[in-house]
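Section 5: illustrative case.
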């Protein structure tokens, strides 16, 4: 793995950029959103309960992982922002593996262990990684909003590459039903006997997909064994849904504790490679970013999974509820370079086309035959970087193109050797999750995405949903071409950088399409408007980008993606 020191060197070069630290506004809390005005730093007071919205800047490791500072038991450390999973885990100071780190590790000083351990396994048998440690509770929070007694995994043994990408763990923003910790804790409560190590909790033969959760233990407790999926009256006991409030993921506990103006968060992700800039990196909590109106977004409901589809069985006191599992929404159609792509032949046409919206995934993944069709149109694996391509998802009747700058990745160190697509294939839907596409960071850099939980315990009362606002500028193709010519003048290398997760929000001096705050000025050729010091000086990437790509694949192998 000779690529790692190279990438790590690049990371360190950018992380020590002192200008970055001074560029950060230390706005800790109080509903401050972008565009920002400067205010004095204020200490977060985790006990005060008057804050119901907040914002925090997002760190970016070469567009491969995005992270935010999360408070856990007295420290604040960057954790990967992951809408594709629902657990909070952080590498402990007691970590015994290769855990040398530039970011703070969890000291465990106020950790209250449950006596249970969790073993999180990612990847397949050949490329697998693991993270293991005790489950316990501690205070935890984000952007000055905190809760006591948050369950988390204190990782003491791992061989994931997370630390090398500047993150100390994972901040899962998904629903309780897919949380490994929630499942293990409620299982222990129901059985009155805590399991120790839960085997291959997240094991999956295909490392590209998060494994589908099993709720068999819930139906077993009401002594029902046979033909579960044919039985239309599967129920769980009321204490199962009620346990969301205590055992649920951090963000859903902020919601349950009525800490937020609205049970939602929104992301805009910056672009730190190809053409640095784009939207400002920001996690908005409890409301949309300032200046953005809810009705300017296209809102679509999440897919709910019935018990027959393997979903969470409803409680006997709310038997008609059907719960979401993941941030998954219907996709009407997919277009590539103006032509509608045929539906995949690899899954049943009766499965509604849908996509997982996943901040923890650095690629876009789709059905193998559809991805192959796109490569056929491209004329092969490698294509001319300067020709803008248009992959567009139709969602809620609106077009959501992927910015052509987010579609490409240089095939080698020199852009004149061509580009590859930020696109890979994944297994067809069917047994388990029903989504065909997993839209990761390339898609999320091209939109403002709002994730609204609705009513977590009674989704029928307020359905969970995602709102999207496209932020792709009209001249995005021309901007790709400028970035490619700039790279040619630069020995063929695109620019790339990394941002540390700030303790406040970034300063945005301009807004782009839809009024969304921008990381750098628009257009990129004017230096006067480019007053924002948000982006550290561009680091030329001397890293052979195919290696960078391989590194991404390794990081992807963690499958928190
Ligand atoms: C990580 O550990 C697992 C055992 O849990 C092992 O099978 C795997 O090969 C290791 N992966 C790496 C990348 O070292
Ligand atoms: C430990 O990890 C660091 C980077 O995180 C790496 O540079 C070093 O080579 C690793 N050491 C061993 C023994 O694997
Ligand atoms: C379905 O499950 C319930 C328990 O949840 C059981 O009482 C009922 O008999 C089952 N129905 C069938 C048709 O198996
Ligand atoms: C991208 O494709 C969509 C769907 O075909 C089309 O409506 C849109 O105009 C295209 N955008 C550009 C910039 O070509
Ligand atoms: C969710 O719906 C239930 C049932 O209507 C209601 O009792 C509860 O207050 C709702 N929760 C929130 C946070 O509004
Ligand atoms: C910047 O580009 C725009 C078009 O993209 C052009 O109209 C303008 O003149 C350029 N400004 C400078 C200073 O080159």
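Designed sequence:
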């Amino acid at each position: 793995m000779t690529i790692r020191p190279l990438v790590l060197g690049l990371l360190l070069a950018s992380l020590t950029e002192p200008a970055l630290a001074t560029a950060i506004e230390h706005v800790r809390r109080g509903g401050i959103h972008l565009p920002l005005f400067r205010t004095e730093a204020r200490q977060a007071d985790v006990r005060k309960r008057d804050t119901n919205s907040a914002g925090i800047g997002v760190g970016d490791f070469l567009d491969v992982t995005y992270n935010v500072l999360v408070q856990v038991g007295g420290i604040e450390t960057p954790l990967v922002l992951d809408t594709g999973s629902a657990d909070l885990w952080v590498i402990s100071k007691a970590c015994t593996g290769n855990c040398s780190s530039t970011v703070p590790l969890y000291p465990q000083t106020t950790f209250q262990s449950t006596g249970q351990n969790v073993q999180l396994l990612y990847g397949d048998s050949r490329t697998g990684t693991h993270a293991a440690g005790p489950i316990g509770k501690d205070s935890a929070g984000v952007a000055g909003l905190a809760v006591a007694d948050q369950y988390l995994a204190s990782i003491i043994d791992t061989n994931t590459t997370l630390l090398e990408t500047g993150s100390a763990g994972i901040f899962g923003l998904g629903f309780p039903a897919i949380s490994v910790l929630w499942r293990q804790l409620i299982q222990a409560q129901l059985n009155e006997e805590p399991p120790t190590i839960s085997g291959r909790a997240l094991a999956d033969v295909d490392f590209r997909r998060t494994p589908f959760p099993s709720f068999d233990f819930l139906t077993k407790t009401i002594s029902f064994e046979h033909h579960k999926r044919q039985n239309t009256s599967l129920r769980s006991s009321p204490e199962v849904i009620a346990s969301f409030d205590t055992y649920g993921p951090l963000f859903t506990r902020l919601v349950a504790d009525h800490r937020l103006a609205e049970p939602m968060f929104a992301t805009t992700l910056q672009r730190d490679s190809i053409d640095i800039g784009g939207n400002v990196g920001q996690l908005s909590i409890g409301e949309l970013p300032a200046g953005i109106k809810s009705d300017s977004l296209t809102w679509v409901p999440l897919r709910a999974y019935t018990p027959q589809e393997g979903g969470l069985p409803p409680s006997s006191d709310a038997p008609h509820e059907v719960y979401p599992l993941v941030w998954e929404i219907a996709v009407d159609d997919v277009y590539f370079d103006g032509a509608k792509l045929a539906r995949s032949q690899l899954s049943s046409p009766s499965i509604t086309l849908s996509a997982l919206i996943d901040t923890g995934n650095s690629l876009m993944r789709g059905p193998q035959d559809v991805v192959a069709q796109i490569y056929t149109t491209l004329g092969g694996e490698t294509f001319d970087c300067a020709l803008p391509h248009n992959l567009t998802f139709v969602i809620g009747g609106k077009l959501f193109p992927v910015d052509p700058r987010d579609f490409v990745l240089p095939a080698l160190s020199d852009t004149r050797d061509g580009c590859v697509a930020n696109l890979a294939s994944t297994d067809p839907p069917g047994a388990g999750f029903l989504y065909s596409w997993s839209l990761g960071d390339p898609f999320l850099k091209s939109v403002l995405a709002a994730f609204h939980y609705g009513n977590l315990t009674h989704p029928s009362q307020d359905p969970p949903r995602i709102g999207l606002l496209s932020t792709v500028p009209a001249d995005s193709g021309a901007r790709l071409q400028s970035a490619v010519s700039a790279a040619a003048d630069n020995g063929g290398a695109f620019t790339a950088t990394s941002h540390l997760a700030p303790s406040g929000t970034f300063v945005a001096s301009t807004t782009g399409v839809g009024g969304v705050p921008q990381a750098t000025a628009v257009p990129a050729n004017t230096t006067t408007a480019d007053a924002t010091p948000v982006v550290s000086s561009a680091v030329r990437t001397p890293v052979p980008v195919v290696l960078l790509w391989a590194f991404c694949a390794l990081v992807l192998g963690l499958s928190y993606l």
